Amino acid sequence: MKYLGIDYGTKRVGVAVSDDDGRVAFPLTSLMGGADAVREVVALAGSRGAEAIVLGESRNFKGEPNPVMENIEQFKTDVAELSGLPVHYEPEFMTSAQATREGETKDLDASAAALILQGYLDRIHNHGPNQH
Length: 132
Fold this sequence. Notes:
By secondary structure, the chain is of the alpha/beta class. The chain is built from four helices and five strands, in the order βββαβαβαα. Helix 1 crosses helix 2 and helix 3 (95-101) crosses helix 4 (108-127). The radius of gyration is 13 Å and the shape is globular.
């Protein structure tokens, strides 16, 4: 099963894609945030043959939703409705900082999306999709 991974931001949206088996995530691109981002993500999902989308869930150190979560929830709803694909949350925590540490500064947002997607893929292959 092929997946698209998303690191949502109000300014930029990082996108990653998995291999056909849904085992390895690769940075794909960064899109400008805003009204067109939903349509662009849905178009990428279609052109890449994604069967599901994984979206980073932003929470603070206490596990409470960050202020951006309201936008992320709306983005999730819009992508799911327009694409007809399931959209899953994967906790994201410091993925941009981790991508920077790993030297991925050229396309930081896409690299952060790949970290989010890889976390989801590792979890479902090790524990099943409903395990945290």
